[in-house]
Amino acid sequence: MKERLEALRAEALQELQGVTGPQELSDLRVKYLGKKGALTEILRGMGALSAEERPVIGEVANSVRGAIEAVIEEKNAAFRRAETEERLRSETIDVTLPGSPLPAGAVHPLNKVAQEIEDIFIGMGYTIAEGPEVETDYYNFEALNLPKNHPARDMQDSFYITDEILMRTQTSPVQIRSMKAMSGKSPLKIICPGKVYRRDDDDATHSFQFNQVEGLVVGKGIRMSDLKGTLLQFVQEMFGKQARIRLRPSFFPFTEPSAEVDMTCSQCGGKGCRMCKGTGWLEILGCGMVHPKVLQAGGYDPEEVTGFAFGMGIERIALLKYGIDDIRHFYTNDLRFLSQFARM
């Protein structure tokens, strides 16, 4: 058996010298040292040896195993070094080469306009309030003087999740939540920017999801003239000092009196053009004095305080500010369109 072990050593070491790759080396390890390898097969015959022969043969077997394993480990280390050197050669970077140019990004026009609106109102002392996009019917409608079966609900075809839960159709629920959080304290001056959802067909001027900014002021002695002055300052900050506004009577369930606000056309300055259909005016937002029932729902006494509210679509402001004729441009991710705003 000793002769067989020595012969196995010589055979294995000779074969290992000709190994050319890691896989071949792994195969030889299995061939000679595996559970069914040549060394194991020889050692199965040790049971027939005498007690004096077993230690001698065991020592020889360990020597053979150690010699084979040493060569295998040496070869493995050599293959790893060669692999590392090859990777370093193939992945070498010439640091003197110019870098790959990356296209400059730009703030999305809707985000740009939203930030401008926020900055203008923050400059007038307003704070930003936020609320959930998934709302209850109470906050979205009932607290805003729109009880069940109110006909004005038909103007806001809604995405209902359950009978009492829906995707908010306006950011006005944030106004109610903010009033309740104040527990009747005043003054309160907030704007509420955010996404809103209505079941509408997508076209050049409508979308099922769009962005609004609503404002609310509650305090003692708040008047309609305060509302008009606030909106005039906003319009002039956004569109230029030459801009003018006018208020037309309208109806909203949550304000009384209510008004639609027009501004002089941003394209022709009020002279009349295709954009304003020759009138010189463009509709920009809705507003009014907060209805007493809405004040009560928010925890205020309408005999003690008054307030005004207004709301505008950010897409509408962006269309007017940049002279864009189709709201869908904001959502199609066309880089040719969006890259224009990198220069603004």
- CA(first)-CA(last) distance: 89 Å
* Broad shape: elongated
CATH class of the largest domain: Alpha Beta
CATH topology term of the largest domain: BirA Bifunctional Protein, domain 2
> What is the H/E order?
HHHHHEEHEHEEHEEEHEHH
Q: In angstroms, what is the radius of gyration?
A: 40 Å
EC number: 6.1.1.20
Binding site for Mg(2+): 256
Subcellular location: Cytoplasm
Cofactor: Mg(2+)
Structure description:
It is built from eleven helices and nine strands. By secondary structure, it is α+β, with helices and mostly antiparallel strands. It has two domains: 2-90; 109-343, Bira Bifunctional Protein, Domain 2 (BirA Bifunctional Protein, domain 2). The chain has a seven-stranded mixed sheet, sandwiched between helices. It has a two-stranded antiparallel sheet with strand order 2-3. β6 and β7 (255-264) form a beta hairpin. α1 (2-17) runs parallel beside α4 (53-90), α2 (22-33) runs antiparallel to α4 (53-90) and α5 (109-123) packs across α10 (314-322). The longest helix is centred in the first third of the chain and has 38 residues, at 53-90. The radius of gyration is 40 Å and the shape is elongated.
Q: What is the gist of this entry?
A:
GO terms for molecular function: ATP binding; catalytic activity, acting on a protein; magnesium ion binding; phenylalanine-tRNA ligase activity; transferase activity; tRNA binding. With 344 residues, the protein is an alpha+beta fold. The protein has two domains: 2-90; 109-343, 2-Layer Sandwich (BirA Bifunctional Protein, domain 2), CATH 3.30.930.
